[in-house]
What does this fold into?
Amino acid sequence: MVWTLAELADALGAGLDGPPGHIVARPAAPDSDDAQGIAFCTTRQVARHAQNSGVGAVIAPAELPVRGKPRLITGDPYRAFGRFLLLYRPEDGREAGRHPTAQVASSARVEPSAFLGAYVVVEDDVRIDSGAQILSFCHIGRGSVIGARTTLHPHVVLYPRTRVGRDCLLHAGSIVGSEGLGFFPGADGSWQKFPQVGDAELGDEVQLGAGTVVERGAFGTTRVGPGTKIGAQTVIGHNATIGSGAMISGQVGIAGSATIGDNVLMGGQAGVADHVTIADGVALGARAAALRDLPHAGLHFGVPARPAEEIMRAYAIFPWLPELLRRVQRLDARCEEHRKRS
It folds into this structure.
Protein backbone atom coordinates (compact mmCIF):
# COMPACT_ATOMS: atom_id res chain seq x y z
CA MET A 1 0.00 0.00 0.00
CA VAL A 2 1.17 3.54 -0.78
CA TRP A 3 -0.05 6.97 0.28
CA THR A 4 0.24 10.47 -1.04
CA LEU A 5 1.73 13.01 1.34
CA ALA A 6 -1.69 14.73 1.49
CA GLU A 7 -3.38 11.47 2.51
CA LEU A 8 -0.83 10.92 5.26
CA ALA A 9 -1.24 14.50 6.50
CA ASP A 10 -4.98 13.89 6.89
CA ALA A 11 -4.49 10.49 8.53
CA LEU A 12 -1.91 11.76 11.02
CA GLY A 13 -3.40 15.18 11.69
CA ALA A 14 -0.22 16.86 10.44
CA GLY A 15 0.50 19.95 8.42
CA LEU A 16 1.85 19.64 4.87
CA ASP A 17 4.95 21.34 3.47
CA GLY A 18 5.64 19.95 0.01
CA PRO A 19 3.92 18.47 -3.03
CA PRO A 20 0.61 16.88 -1.97
CA GLY A 21 1.02 14.08 -4.51
CA HIS A 22 4.44 12.91 -3.31
CA ILE A 23 4.29 9.13 -2.83
CA VAL A 24 5.17 7.47 0.48
CA ALA A 25 5.43 3.69 0.54
CA ARG A 26 7.23 2.74 3.76
CA PRO A 27 9.10 3.92 6.88
CA ALA A 28 12.80 4.69 6.49
CA ALA A 29 15.83 5.80 8.48
CA PRO A 30 16.85 9.47 8.19
CA ASP A 31 20.07 8.52 6.37
CA SER A 32 18.26 6.21 3.95
CA ASP A 33 18.32 6.66 0.16
CA ASP A 34 14.75 5.38 -0.18
CA ALA A 35 12.96 7.94 -2.35
CA GLN A 36 9.56 6.57 -1.28
CA GLY A 37 10.47 6.27 2.40
CA ILE A 38 9.53 8.65 5.21
CA ALA A 39 11.63 9.31 8.33
CA PHE A 40 11.04 11.33 11.47
CA CYS A 41 13.33 14.04 12.83
CA THR A 42 13.39 15.32 16.40
CA THR A 43 16.84 16.98 16.58
CA ARG A 44 18.98 19.17 14.30
CA GLN A 45 21.55 16.40 13.99
CA VAL A 46 18.95 13.93 12.70
CA ALA A 47 17.54 16.62 10.40
CA ARG A 48 21.00 17.12 8.88
CA HIS A 49 21.27 13.38 8.20
CA ALA A 50 17.88 13.45 6.45
CA GLN A 51 18.75 16.61 4.52
CA ASN A 52 21.93 15.03 3.12
CA SER A 53 20.35 11.67 2.32
CA GLY A 54 18.04 10.43 -0.38
CA VAL A 55 15.09 9.76 1.90
CA GLY A 56 11.90 10.91 0.21
CA ALA A 57 10.07 12.77 3.00
CA VAL A 58 10.25 13.53 6.71
CA ILE A 59 8.00 14.11 9.71
CA ALA A 60 9.34 17.04 11.72
CA PRO A 61 8.26 19.95 13.94
CA ALA A 62 7.76 23.35 12.33
CA GLU A 63 10.89 24.79 13.96
CA LEU A 64 13.10 22.07 12.42
CA PRO A 65 13.52 22.81 8.70
CA VAL A 66 14.85 20.04 6.47
CA ARG A 67 15.81 21.79 3.25
CA GLY A 68 14.77 20.11 0.04
CA LYS A 69 12.53 17.51 1.68
CA PRO A 70 8.73 17.31 1.69
CA ARG A 71 7.59 17.52 5.31
CA LEU A 72 4.69 16.52 7.47
CA ILE A 73 4.66 19.09 10.27
CA THR A 74 3.68 18.08 13.79
CA GLY A 75 4.64 18.95 17.33
CA ASP A 76 5.31 15.29 18.16
CA PRO A 77 7.11 13.54 15.26
CA TYR A 78 7.74 10.37 17.28
CA ARG A 79 4.05 9.85 17.98
CA ALA A 80 3.07 10.68 14.40
CA PHE A 81 5.63 8.20 13.06
CA GLY A 82 4.25 5.53 15.40
CA ARG A 83 0.77 6.13 14.01
CA PHE A 84 2.17 5.81 10.50
CA LEU A 85 3.73 2.46 11.43
CA LEU A 86 0.27 1.22 12.44
CA LEU A 87 -1.01 2.24 9.01
CA TYR A 88 1.94 0.60 7.31
CA ARG A 89 1.70 -2.65 9.22
CA PRO A 90 -1.61 -2.96 11.04
CA GLU A 91 -1.82 -5.32 13.98
CA ASP A 92 -2.47 -8.93 13.08
CA GLY A 93 -6.09 -9.95 13.02
CA ARG A 94 -7.42 -12.20 15.76
CA GLU A 95 -8.19 -15.83 15.18
CA ALA A 96 -10.71 -18.05 16.91
CA GLY A 97 -10.75 -21.75 17.72
CA ARG A 98 -8.06 -24.17 18.80
CA HIS A 99 -5.32 -26.17 17.19
CA PRO A 100 -5.91 -29.93 17.32
CA THR A 101 -2.77 -30.42 19.41
CA ALA A 102 -3.92 -28.03 22.16
CA GLN A 103 -4.62 -29.80 25.47
CA VAL A 104 -7.53 -28.29 27.43
CA ALA A 105 -8.81 -29.62 30.75
CA SER A 106 -12.50 -30.42 30.87
CA SER A 107 -13.10 -27.93 33.70
CA ALA A 108 -11.46 -25.03 31.82
CA ARG A 109 -13.72 -22.35 30.31
CA VAL A 110 -12.49 -21.03 26.98
CA GLU A 111 -14.64 -18.51 25.10
CA PRO A 112 -15.40 -19.58 21.51
CA SER A 113 -13.82 -16.38 20.13
CA ALA A 114 -10.50 -17.12 21.86
CA PHE A 115 -7.66 -18.88 20.04
CA LEU A 116 -5.39 -21.66 21.30
CA GLY A 117 -2.33 -22.45 19.17
CA ALA A 118 -0.35 -25.63 18.67
CA TYR A 119 0.64 -27.56 21.80
CA VAL A 120 -0.94 -25.09 24.21
CA VAL A 121 -1.72 -26.64 27.61
CA VAL A 122 -4.66 -25.33 29.63
CA GLU A 123 -5.06 -26.86 33.09
CA ASP A 124 -8.11 -27.29 35.33
CA ASP A 125 -10.38 -24.37 36.25
CA VAL A 126 -8.73 -21.89 33.88
CA ARG A 127 -10.85 -19.11 32.34
CA ILE A 128 -9.90 -17.61 28.99
CA ASP A 129 -12.09 -14.68 27.94
CA SER A 130 -13.28 -13.54 24.51
CA GLY A 131 -10.73 -12.74 21.82
CA ALA A 132 -7.70 -13.91 23.81
CA GLN A 133 -4.87 -15.26 21.67
CA ILE A 134 -2.79 -18.03 23.25
CA LEU A 135 -0.06 -18.91 20.78
CA SER A 136 1.92 -22.11 20.44
CA PHE A 137 3.56 -23.91 23.38
CA CYS A 138 2.05 -21.69 26.09
CA HIS A 139 1.24 -23.32 29.44
CA ILE A 140 -1.68 -21.97 31.49
CA GLY A 141 -1.62 -23.22 35.08
CA ARG A 142 -4.59 -24.38 37.11
CA GLY A 143 -7.09 -21.71 38.18
CA SER A 144 -5.55 -18.93 36.07
CA VAL A 145 -7.61 -16.20 34.37
CA ILE A 146 -6.80 -14.49 31.06
CA GLY A 147 -8.79 -11.38 30.16
CA ALA A 148 -10.43 -10.46 26.89
CA ARG A 149 -8.21 -9.69 23.88
CA THR A 150 -5.00 -10.51 25.73
CA THR A 151 -2.22 -12.06 23.63
CA LEU A 152 0.34 -14.58 24.89
CA HIS A 153 3.19 -15.14 22.44
CA PRO A 154 4.86 -18.57 22.19
CA HIS A 155 6.30 -20.25 25.28
CA VAL A 156 4.64 -17.96 27.83
CA VAL A 157 4.03 -19.74 31.16
CA LEU A 158 1.37 -18.76 33.69
CA TYR A 159 1.80 -20.62 36.97
CA PRO A 160 -1.35 -21.69 38.86
CA ARG A 161 -3.78 -18.99 40.06
CA THR A 162 -2.25 -16.24 37.92
CA ARG A 163 -4.60 -13.46 36.81
CA VAL A 164 -3.97 -11.48 33.63
CA GLY A 165 -6.24 -8.56 32.72
CA ARG A 166 -7.76 -7.40 29.45
CA ASP A 167 -5.77 -6.23 26.41
CA CYS A 168 -2.43 -7.39 27.79
CA LEU A 169 0.54 -8.43 25.67
CA LEU A 170 3.01 -11.02 26.99
CA HIS A 171 5.98 -11.60 24.72
CA ALA A 172 7.71 -14.90 24.11
CA GLY A 173 9.16 -16.70 27.08
CA SER A 174 7.73 -14.43 29.75
CA ILE A 175 6.73 -16.14 32.99
CA VAL A 176 4.15 -15.00 35.54
CA GLY A 177 3.65 -16.61 38.94
CA SER A 178 6.90 -18.55 39.36
CA GLU A 179 8.47 -18.98 42.79
CA GLY A 180 10.63 -16.26 44.26
CA LEU A 181 13.91 -16.94 46.04
CA GLY A 182 12.60 -17.88 49.46
CA PHE A 183 14.92 -19.74 51.87
CA PHE A 184 15.97 -19.54 55.50
CA PRO A 185 18.97 -21.08 57.29
CA GLY A 186 18.17 -24.34 59.03
CA ALA A 187 19.59 -25.54 62.35
CA ASP A 188 22.33 -27.44 60.50
CA GLY A 189 23.24 -24.37 58.42
CA SER A 190 21.67 -25.64 55.22
CA TRP A 191 19.11 -23.59 53.30
CA GLN A 192 15.50 -24.54 54.05
CA LYS A 193 12.72 -23.68 51.62
CA PHE A 194 10.23 -20.95 52.57
CA PRO A 195 7.09 -22.02 50.66
CA GLN A 196 5.81 -19.49 48.13
CA VAL A 197 2.04 -19.87 48.42
CA GLY A 198 0.82 -16.54 46.99
CA ASP A 199 -0.10 -15.56 43.45
CA ALA A 200 0.50 -12.91 40.78
CA GLU A 201 -1.77 -10.44 39.02
CA LEU A 202 -1.37 -8.25 35.92
CA GLY A 203 -3.84 -5.39 35.42
CA ASP A 204 -5.44 -4.41 32.13
CA GLU A 205 -3.20 -3.30 29.23
CA VAL A 206 0.03 -4.53 30.81
CA GLN A 207 2.90 -5.50 28.50
CA LEU A 208 5.78 -7.83 29.39
CA GLY A 209 8.89 -8.05 27.21
CA ALA A 210 10.43 -11.33 26.13
CA GLY A 211 11.89 -13.36 28.96
CA THR A 212 10.49 -11.18 31.75
CA VAL A 213 9.57 -12.87 35.04
CA VAL A 214 6.93 -11.79 37.57
CA GLU A 215 7.25 -13.95 40.69
CA ARG A 216 4.24 -14.87 42.77
CA GLY A 217 3.95 -13.66 46.33
CA ALA A 218 5.43 -15.69 49.14
CA PHE A 219 1.94 -15.10 50.55
CA GLY A 220 -0.48 -12.56 49.19
CA THR A 221 -0.14 -11.16 45.67
CA THR A 222 2.54 -9.68 43.43
CA ARG A 223 0.78 -6.93 41.45
CA VAL A 224 1.51 -5.04 38.24
CA GLY A 225 -0.93 -2.16 37.76
CA PRO A 226 -2.96 -1.33 34.66
CA GLY A 227 -1.20 0.24 31.71
CA THR A 228 2.31 -0.59 32.92
CA LYS A 229 4.84 -1.60 30.25
CA ILE A 230 7.88 -3.72 31.17
CA GLY A 231 10.83 -4.45 28.88
CA ALA A 232 12.64 -7.70 28.19
CA GLN A 233 14.55 -9.80 30.74
CA THR A 234 13.24 -7.92 33.75
CA VAL A 235 12.55 -9.60 37.10
CA ILE A 236 9.76 -8.52 39.47
CA GLY A 237 10.34 -10.10 42.87
CA HIS A 238 7.76 -11.77 45.11
CA ASN A 239 5.18 -9.50 46.76
CA ALA A 240 6.35 -6.45 44.81
CA THR A 241 3.66 -3.94 43.84
CA ILE A 242 3.92 -1.80 40.72
CA GLY A 243 1.43 0.99 40.16
CA SER A 244 -0.37 2.03 36.98
CA GLY A 245 1.21 3.58 33.91
CA ALA A 246 4.81 2.71 34.79
CA MET A 247 7.41 2.33 32.03
CA ILE A 248 10.18 -0.10 33.00
CA SER A 249 13.05 -0.80 30.61
CA GLY A 250 14.79 -4.10 30.01
CA GLN A 251 16.99 -5.95 32.52
CA VAL A 252 15.59 -4.06 35.50
CA GLY A 253 15.55 -5.90 38.83
CA ILE A 254 12.86 -5.14 41.40
CA ALA A 255 13.38 -7.04 44.64
CA GLY A 256 10.71 -8.60 46.81
CA SER A 257 8.14 -6.44 48.61
CA ALA A 258 9.25 -3.26 46.83
CA THR A 259 6.47 -0.75 46.11
CA ILE A 260 6.61 1.20 42.85
CA GLY A 261 4.20 4.12 42.42
CA ASP A 262 2.16 5.27 39.43
CA ASN A 263 3.81 6.65 36.27
CA VAL A 264 7.32 5.67 37.37
CA LEU A 265 10.03 5.46 34.70
CA MET A 266 13.02 3.13 35.02
CA GLY A 267 16.02 3.02 32.69
CA GLY A 268 17.76 -0.18 31.63
CA GLN A 269 19.44 -2.29 34.33
CA ALA A 270 18.12 -0.12 37.15
CA GLY A 271 17.59 -1.89 40.45
CA VAL A 272 15.29 -1.53 43.45
CA ALA A 273 16.15 -3.14 46.79
CA ASP A 274 13.65 -5.14 48.83
CA HIS A 275 11.00 -3.25 50.81
CA VAL A 276 11.94 0.07 49.15
CA THR A 277 9.12 2.45 48.19
CA ILE A 278 9.34 4.55 45.00
CA ALA A 279 6.95 7.51 44.87
CA ASP A 280 4.63 8.35 41.99
CA GLY A 281 6.38 10.12 39.13
CA VAL A 282 9.95 9.10 39.97
CA ALA A 283 12.29 8.57 37.01
CA LEU A 284 15.17 6.20 37.77
CA GLY A 285 18.10 6.48 35.37
CA ALA A 286 19.85 3.56 33.70
CA ARG A 287 21.82 1.38 36.15
CA ALA A 288 20.64 3.46 39.11
CA ALA A 289 20.15 1.56 42.35
CA ALA A 290 17.33 2.55 44.70
CA LEU A 291 18.67 1.24 48.01
CA ARG A 292 16.29 3.30 50.15
CA ASP A 293 12.93 5.01 49.69
CA LEU A 294 12.62 7.70 47.02
CA PRO A 295 9.74 9.83 48.36
CA HIS A 296 9.74 12.65 45.79
CA ALA A 297 8.99 12.70 42.06
CA GLY A 298 11.73 13.63 39.60
CA LEU A 299 14.86 12.20 38.03
CA HIS A 300 17.19 10.12 40.19
CA PHE A 301 20.33 8.27 39.21
CA GLY A 302 23.57 6.87 40.58
CA VAL A 303 24.42 4.29 43.25
CA PRO A 304 22.74 4.79 45.59
CA ALA A 305 20.12 6.69 43.58
CA ARG A 306 19.84 10.35 44.52
CA PRO A 307 18.08 13.36 42.99
CA ALA A 308 19.69 14.36 39.71
CA GLU A 309 20.73 17.84 40.83
CA GLU A 310 22.72 16.39 43.74
CA ILE A 311 24.46 13.84 41.53
CA MET A 312 25.28 16.46 38.89
CA ARG A 313 26.95 18.66 41.50
CA ALA A 314 29.01 15.69 42.62
CA TYR A 315 29.92 14.80 39.02
CA ALA A 316 31.10 18.39 38.45
CA ILE A 317 33.67 17.90 41.25
CA PHE A 318 35.06 14.58 39.99
CA PRO A 319 37.60 16.03 37.48
CA TRP A 320 39.09 18.14 40.26
CA LEU A 321 39.58 15.30 42.72
CA PRO A 322 43.17 14.40 41.68
CA GLU A 323 44.32 18.02 42.07
CA LEU A 324 42.44 18.36 45.35
CA LEU A 325 44.14 15.18 46.58
CA ARG A 326 47.55 16.56 45.69
CA ARG A 327 46.77 19.81 47.55
CA VAL A 328 45.63 17.91 50.63
CA GLN A 329 48.75 15.76 50.54
CA ARG A 330 50.97 18.89 50.33
CA LEU A 331 49.09 20.51 53.21
CA ASP A 332 49.39 17.32 55.22
CA ALA A 333 53.14 17.20 54.59
CA ARG A 334 53.50 20.82 55.73
CA CYS A 335 51.47 20.13 58.86
CA GLU A 336 53.67 17.13 59.63
CA GLU A 337 56.81 19.23 59.10
CA HIS A 338 55.45 21.95 61.36
CA ARG A 339 54.59 19.35 64.03
CA LYS A 340 58.14 17.99 64.00
CA ARG A 341 59.59 21.48 64.44
CA SER A 342 57.36 22.41 67.34
Observations:
- The first helix runs from residue 5 to 12.
- The two ends are 91 Å apart (CA to CA).
- DSSP finds five helices and 40 strands in the chain.
- The mean pLDDT is 95.
